[in-house]
Amino acid sequence: MNATKQATLYDKTGAAFSFDHEINGTLYVRPLVKVIMQSSYGDDYHEEQDYEPAAYLVARDEADLFYAPPLEVVEAEVSAKRTELDALTAEAKKTVRDINSQRSVAERGLLDAKRQLDQWMQTHRVIMDLGKLLDGKVLYPLGVSENHYHHARDIPRIPGMRHAAYLALTSGNFEDGKKWVCKQYGSDSYGSPFQFFDTEEERAAVIRSEFDITCEKFRERPNFDTTSYTSTTTLHYGTLLKWVETHPALTIPDDIKAMKAANDAALVEQRKAKLAAELAAMDAGGSHA
């Protein structure tokens, strides 16, 4: 064997040696021993392993050493590495599942907390708005309600604030153990309920939404009457005109305007036909005379 100095040789078991010298077919080699090297950087601890020739020599017959490890040993090492990799992969998947599970729990908790906060803010909005008013913030009142006659929406009212009542607590008696009840959110000088909005844009959006609901209700049963004194009890075209008069930023939708124009045209044709019939009857009466 023409091995060079420090060449790595292997026996049948896969043990590794570092070649040192040869005498008459006998190889003198140093077993490769595992060396663990440790280092640290602050709180970071690092460990590496390597193989170095031992300080002593062993004699081996030239026929017992090879330049490559036996195939069986290589396959065993590959199998061991594959098993180790499978274990690491399984552990990584379990870690990912655990993280996803914890994240799902956290997300559900966050959603539940947000729901509770939204519910609390809605339930206690009166207190929040009261705090804003006490801080001197300008808020924008609006009263909205359902019309009890035609079951669409009433025209939203922007109430005057003179003599307006904002918060009423009733039924409470701590001595008898009765809790206080918030009887009304707010009422204007006419006793009608209202609530505050932070901006004019927010209030305008609510007015628009209420109007859209009313227009949709109108489309279900179109009524093109414009009698003003029935606009509060009957949902007809005059009611929509009253909405626009009260809130000039609103406009009656084009499709409803087209329906109104078609209805007016049909009434004109009916009137013309009626007049023509009346004229024909008058002419017939005159000819007989």
Structural overview:
This protein starts with 7 loop residues before the first strand and ends with a helix. It has three domains: 8-69, no CATH class; 70-123; 129-250, no CATH class. It has helices at residues 71-123, 125-134, 200-220, 237-246, 254-288, and strands spanning 8-10, 16-23, 26-41, 44-53, 58-61, 140-142, 168-170, 181-184, 195-197. With 289 residues, it is of the alpha+beta class. The strands form three sheets. Strands 1, 2, 3, 4 and 5 form a five-stranded antiparallel sheet that branches. A two-stranded antiparallel sheet has the order 6-9. The protein has a two-stranded antiparallel sheet with strand order 7-8. A hairpin with a 5-residue loop joins strand 1 (8-10) and strand 2 (16-23).
Q: What sequence of helices (H) and strands (E) makes up the elements?
A: EEEEEHHEEEEHHH
Portion in strands: 15-25%
**Shape category:** elongated
How many DSSP E strands? 9
Query: Given the helix and strand composition, which structural class is it?
Result: alpha+beta
Largest sheet: 5 strands, antiparallel
Keywords for this entry:
alpha+beta, elongated, 289 residues, 5 helices, five-stranded antiparallel β-sheet
